[in-house]
Design goal:
By secondary structure, the protein is mostly helical. About 65% of the residues lie in helices and about 5% in strands. It folds into 2 domains: about 1-120, no CATH class; about 120-194. It contains 7 helices and 2 strands; from the N terminus they run H-H-E-E-H-H-H-H-H. Helix 2 crosses helix 3 (about 65-80) and helix 6 crosses helix 7 (about 165-194). The chain is globular and about 60 Å long. About 15% of the residues are buried.
């Protein structure tokens, strides 16, 4: 069963996405970072978002990005405590719980297919460890907003809804990710062998 654990994990992930779409709405995350940016912007410039009773959202903005979709993003910036924002806040909490649960696994377990064996620990400085990750995360998020959606919105939720662009996006992601993972693994294993 350990070799096929990825199938179980995929089924769980698919079920979560299906239930989210069925009960509330399709999952998408990157928009909430725009909401967070808008909240900071609103503190600096309180007039960037104002009420407008003529719109369905009830808000308008002098910033074209916040004003798109008839001020829907502007409304979310003014009233951020909603399903999407709580979902985003729960991501690091869930990741930490998963980390704690995974840490409890016996270290003597033989890795199953799809699990990367633990490499010898190499001491690195704080800057070399975290700054590249931060820059990479920033670039991914910036690209997601330029594309008007992230992997969860375009690929997972998009494919589930039968979106052609979701399937095209998934194909592009895997066409780039698989060769990149192979190259990085070979590079990493080459360093360990030295």
């Amino acid at each position: 069963m350990k070799k096929n654990r990825w199938i179980l994990h995929g089924m769980i992930l698919g079920t979560v996405f299906f239930l989210a779409a069925l009960v509330i709405k399709p999952i998408g995350v990157s928009t909430q970072f725009s909401v967070l940016t808008g909240m900071v912007h609103s503190v600096i410039n309180p007039n960037v978002i104002t009420e407008d009773s003529s719109r369905d959202s009830g808000y308008k903005s002098t910033n074209a990005y916040y004003d798109k979709s008839d001020g829907k993003l502007a409304k979310n910036i003014k009233h951020p405590i909603n399903y999407d924002f709580i979902f985003v806040l729960a991501i690091p909490a869930g990741a930490y719980v998963a980390y704690l649960l995974n840490r409890k696994r016996k270290s003597s377990e033989i890795p199953y297919i799809g699990e990367v064996p633990e490499l010898p620990k190499q001491k690195q400085s704080f800057l070399k460890t975290y700054i590249p990750s931060f820059i990479g995360g920033f670039l991914i998020l910036f690209g997601a907003r330029m594309a008007d959606g992230c992997t969860s919105g375009h690929m997972m939720s998009g494919m589930m809804q039968g979106s052609v662009s979701g399937y095209l996006f998934a194909a592009a992601v895997f066409a780039v990710a698989i060769p990149t993972a192979i190259i990085m693994e070979r590079k990493s294993l080459g360093k360990v062998g030295k």
